[in-house]
Design brief:
The chain is an alpha/beta fold. The chain is built from twelve helices and eleven strands. The strands form two sheets. A six-stranded mixed sheet has the order 6-7-8-9-11-10, with helices on both faces. The protein binds adenosine monophosphate and manganese (II) ion (2 copies). Residues 46, 50, 52-53, 112 line the site of one manganese (II) ion.
Length: 343
């Protein structure tokens, strides 16, 4: 077990290996220096942000703002809306649409984006930025910036964000804690995934101690949806197929249009499909507003779906990964089965 090393102020000490073993001290020091020198800092997270992407970004945004920095934050979606599930997060006044983002930021920080492509419309801005700090926990991240704060042992980018905030001498207030907690619970599946280490619970304890409402956050994230979701879910489950340890289904634009359901509402379907006892791997194909398939995949541990999805142009983790397919459902599944057979 990793020891919980604290400094005299009760903060995780610099020698602490709770999360940060993969990030060299020199990298943290350089990040703190770059931030210290900057007047304006541009933050970006991956497209169609989840709780970890948006939560980490807004948490760091709060800390930077309290240091007197000008902060802009965004994500590079064509249709720039915060998913309904995440609208409860504080700090959304920091968000600007991609068209209002600085064209060539002097300092940029990216959150939870495993590749340059995951920045979507903000790719050009990133390419023109003078310094780009990449904060992430995806094992596949090769570091597309000028400084990497990447720790693939961290359960969430939020764990790295907390470390950065401490190192900036930021105070963990309730707003910051709410954002970080959203990241931590999202990426650990409410402390259920194998990534849930003692360090995760220790961090959760620090966050909950600020007085945040874990019950309200859980309800916002998982326990509510418009009525139309039930109908779309029913259609998806009705079409589910079980074949040789693989369970899969799909949701079309037409399904959603019939119920007026936005794409972002589909996130939880994979969590129901993956329950299937008979299947080791679960797949949900979700047709987005452009008619492309966003493929969500989950493994129970034996198969590395991260490797499968990376081979198909996406990425992710061993047990949770995804990619975009521009083919039909049939062709997409054929390609998926072929790659799954190789791992
Ligand atoms: P999701 O199924 O959308 O919850 O995604 C699961 C994980 O797969 C995410 O945390 C990402 O790391 C990764 N992922 C999903 N979609 C993509 C994509 N298009 N490209 C790269 N990684 C992805
Ligand atoms: Mn993410
Ligand atoms: Mn993450």
């Amino acid at each position: 077990m990793t020891p919980d090393v604290r400094d005299r102020a009760g903060r995780p000490s610099r020698a602490n290996s709770l999360t940060g073993t993969a990030v060299p001290e020199a990298a943290w020091d350089r990040a703190v220096r770059l931030i210290g020198q900057a007047e304006e800092i541009a933050l970006a997270c991956h497209v169609t942000p989840d709780g970890d992407a948006l939560g980490s970004m807004l948490a760091v945004g709060f800390a930077l703002r309290s240091m007197g920095k000008r902060v802009v934050a965004s994500f590079g979606d064509h249709h720039f809306v915060v998913p309904r599930l995440l609208r409860f997060l504080p700090g959304q006044e920091m968000l600007v649409p991609p068209e209002d983002y600085p064209a060539a930021p002097s300092l940029m920080i990216t959150f939870d984006a495993s590749t340059f492509e995951r920045l979507g419309l903000l790719r050009d801005n990133t390419a023109r930025a003078r310094e780009v700090i990449v904060m992430d926990h995806h094992p596949s991240n090769e570091g597309f910036g000028t400084l990497s704060l990447i720790d693939s042992t961290a359960a969430a980018t939020a764990m790295l964000a907390e470390q950065l905030i401490y190192r900036l001498r930021g105070r963990l207030d309730r707003d910051i804690a709410t954002c970080l907690y959203a990241g931590l619970v999202t990426d650990t599946g409410s402390f259920r995934h194998s990534s849930t280490t003692p360090a995760v619970h220790q961090m959760a304890a620090r966050l909950v101690a600020t007085g945040l409402r874990t019950d309200e956050i859980a309800r916002e994230l998982w326990d509510r949806s418009p009525f139309g979701y039930l109908k779309v879910l029913a259609a998806a489950l009705d079409r589910a197929v079980l074949e040789d340890g693989l369970v899969w289904t799909y949701v079309t634009r037409v399904d959603r249009a019939a119920q007026g359901l936005p794409y972002a509402e589909l996130e939880g379907i994979i969590d129901i499909v993956r329950r299937t006892d008979e299947a080791e791997v679960a797949v949900v194909l979700k047709e987005d507003d452009h008619g492309h398939w966003q493929v969500s995949t989950r493994s129970k541990g034996r198969a590395d779906v991260g490797a499968v999805c990376a081979a198909l142009g996406g990425g992710g983790h061993h047990n949770a990964a995804g990619y975009t397919s521009y083919d039909s459902v049939e062709k997409t599944m054929a390609a998926f089965r072929r790659e799954l057979g190789k791992v």
